[in-house]
Design brief:
This is TetR family transcriptional regulator. Keywords: DNA-binding. The protein is mostly helical. Helix 5 packs parallel to helix 9. About 30% of the residues are buried.
Length: about 190
């Protein structure tokens, strides 16, 4: 029976997500990805060409899943930020990949036209909402996006004395605080 190429490719992406989220692009090893994916290095290179292309595929896969699971709502940026936090709390490897992507040179280096078009569409929606007086124009749209992400990811990146993972109640409490903070930030 011939192996399913789609299943092999999917296993490689999952294994690569785990490897890249722990080690970043520079520290990740193709050998470990191939072993974890139960695929040969030759198959990995046949699908992705090189490690950088595989990294971009992992980032794109995570972004596509994020877009599907976390609906954007320009009329409820606080709720959107809370949903973003809940998603990243449930998938901490995605947050680590975002941080590694920034260290590698940002989304421009790893993003695709699809990622850039979604971000541009959201910027345009927020700019229109500012013009219509629906959200604060005290900051530029880029500043708002940056501050919203900073608020959303604060508990994941700030130093903490408590190294234990947050329980469900604490995650929900944080999401509520994030929602309130972003609403306050964006209120005209």
């Amino acid at each position: 029976m011939k192996p399913d190429a789609g299943a092999t490719r999917a296993r490689i992406v999952v294994a690569a997500r785990d490897e890249f989220s722990v080690h970043g692009l520079a520290g990740a090893r193709v050998d470990r990805i191939a072993v974890a994916a139960k695929a040969s290095k030759e198959r990995l290179y046949a699908y992705f060409g090189d490690k950088e292309t595989l990294f971009r595929a992992v980032v794109e896969d995570g972004f596509a899943r994020f877009i599907e699971e976390v609906p954007f709502a320009v009329d409820d940026l606080g709720g959107y930020a809370a949903r973003e936090y809940l998603h990243l709390a449930e998938h901490p490897e995605e947050h680590r990949l975002l941080l590694w992507t920034q260290l590698q040179g940002g989304m421009a280096a790893s993003g695709t036209d699809d990622i850039h078009s979604v971000i541009a569409e959201r910027r345009n929606s927020m700019a229109a909402a500012q013009r219509d007086g629906l959200i604060s124009d005290a900051f530029t749209v880029d500043d708002l996006i940056t501050m919203m992400f900073g608020i959303t990811s604060a508990w994941m990146t700030a130093p903490s004395l408590d190294c234990e993972p947050a329980d469900d109640a604490e995650i929900q409490r944080r999401a509520s605080k994030i929602e309130a903070a972003v609403r306050r930030l964006c209120t005209p």
